[in-house]
Specification:
Blueprint (H helix, E strand, L loop, with lengths): L1 H5 L3 H58 L4 H144 L1
Helix pairs in contact: 2-3
Length: 216
Amino acid sequence: LTNCTTIIPLTFQTNILTELRKWKLSLIEHHKLQMKQEKEKHTAHVRQLSNEMENLKELLHTYEISIGRKDEVVITNLTQALERQKERIELMRNFTLWRIQHVKAKQEEYANRIADRQFRTALMKKVWAAWRSLSEEKWKEKVAKACQLRAEDVCVQLTNDYEAKIAELTASLEQTKAEILRLHSEREQYEDTMKKAFMRGVCALNLEAMTMFQGK
């Protein structure tokens, strides 16, 4: 995960951190709202307990008035009953406070667990998207390099073919030039032979003419 994060562009990391801060603030606001609701419930419950205590105080006052009219045994029994009732109310109050704190701690633990899970999920999604984008870029680069190498191979092959063809045509051209030079040489020899033959013919005619003139 660290290696993947190091290759993510800085702007991309900044956007990720901004989104995560927004989600964290949203979760904190949600938790504050739940805490406020829980406090309101606790206040209502304490108010109810206070009303019950006020009613019990009134009942105690009534019992005190009644106790004043009864003998000492009745007074003792009522006092013990009231003490037990007070202890019971105190126990209920303490238990309620403990339960509220326990529920609050559970809610905080659950909210933190959900926040961590969402944070990890969001981070994994961002990293996965970045890794996939980088992999696609690397794949495109690899394909482009492969195409470039293939094109270079084709160009080299075509160059070699053309060079071989040029060499073949050059050899053919040299051979043709040599043939042309040979034909030119033969033509010059033929022309020279024709000139010599023509000159011999002319000389023979001249000699024959001279012989004829001399005979006459």
